[in-house]
Amino acid sequence: MAKFLVLHGPNLNLLGTREPEHYGADTLADIADRLKSQAADAGHQLDSFQSNAEHDLVDKIQSART
User: Fold this and answer.
1) Which position among 4, 21, 25, 35 has the lowest Cβ density within 10 Å, counted as fewest Cβ atoms?
2) Is pLDDT of 66 > 90?
3) Is the predicted pLDDT of residue 19 greater than 80, yes or no?
4) What is the rounded CA–CA span in Å between residue 40 and residue 32?
5) 46 near 39, Cβ under 8 Å?
């Protein structure tokens, strides 16, 4: 089993609400749920994390190291 960490950066929390005609109607939660389900179906673990702050993304990477 592999473990994946998907990082979503600035403004992706606005997916589904910001210009849906351009970016689509799926929210970030919709996308994250789909990814997690696909990973689980393949026998893997997936965690996702979104932040608008670079330091939070770096902290998440560093805390995920094994």
Assistant:
1) 21
2) no
3) yes
4) 12
5) yes
